[in-house]
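Box 4.2: Ligand-aware structure prediction
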Amino acid sequence: MTQLIEKLKTAFPELDIRTHERMREHTTFRIGGEADIFVSPRKTELAPLLAMAREEHIPVTVVGNGSNLLVSDQGIRGLVVEIGSGMADISVQGNTITAGAGALLSKTANAAAAAGLGGMEFAAGIPGSIGGAVTMNAGAYGGEMKDILRQVKVMTPEGQMKTLSVEELALGYRHSCIPENGYVVVEAEIALFEKPQEQIRALMAELAAKRREKQPLEYPSAGSTFKRPEGYFAGKLIMDAGLRGYTVGGAQVSEKHCGFVINRGDATAADVKRLMEEVQRKVYEKYGVTLEPEVKMIGE
Ligand SMILES: Cc1cc2nc3c(=O)[nH]c(=O)nc-3n(C[C@H](O)[C@H](O)[C@H](O)COP(=O)(O)OP(=O)(O)OC[C@H]3O[C@@H](n4cnc5c(N)ncnc54)[C@H](O)[C@@H]3O)c2cc1C
């Protein structure tokens, strides 16, 4: 490992190469053990970095803003590549926004609003990056990434750049073809429409107020813990199963919104997993409905 770190330092003198990086600092859940090596590359560093990881046979885990992740307490072996501020350029041309995968949805939605472009208001309060939002086909309040994406640039596992149309992304409910192909999202082209700025800002403010009213934003979480089962709402099933406030260690089913598991301060990933399993078991026993995690569990 020491040899590898030296090699990385020589090849990427400007890259901040961190070892034993606490992943809790990089997730909205504030949970997770250490990553062996953690980097947040610039766009030009990405291809050679992934090439070196391939040559050295180091496992690579790609993360965005960490808002949909549960990282294990044992942490992540190998190299964690955060697609973040080094790849976060946003530019507007006509009705099109081109955003680096590391750009935050909130910043991109604000850039759209400032340019008088509507259609992205739904995404302003989702605390993810463009890359994470494409991968998850993030959505809220009747909108989803699928509605606004025109095309996406990805890097293939072989290090080639490829442009995928929205159809090729195979976007479905919290699903895209990105993980199964091992692609890294690099940039997205978003097609919006002209709309008066006051109307955009008013809708964004309305949706933000709804979030504050309904969601436990005062606690660390990873958003909705489970996907919406067809014909049901996960939060309502959990509440009706009598699990409001149900607690395992530092993890708790939010009393404000039962669809969220929150970290009351010192939750471990093991607490969250145990709690999720209990919730799945009780909801299945009572309603015969299988709850599928929306949160991505990663790490050893
Ligand atoms: C308070 C709160 C509210 C939320 N509300 C919503 C909501 O309304 N709607 C919604 O859909 N989600 C919501 N979420 C969940 C989360 O914000 C979204 O899933 C978001 O799209 C994740 O983006 P991220 O950058 O944080 O990705 P991460 O959590 O870092 O990663 C998520 C997945 O995407 C992959 N990934 C990330 N970036 C890339 C990339 N560049 N290339 C390839 N793979 C990548 C990761 O490997 C991982 O599998 C909420 C979360 C919180 C904490």
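In the box above, the bound molecule is flavin-adenine dinucleotide. Residues 269-287 form the longest helix (19 residues).
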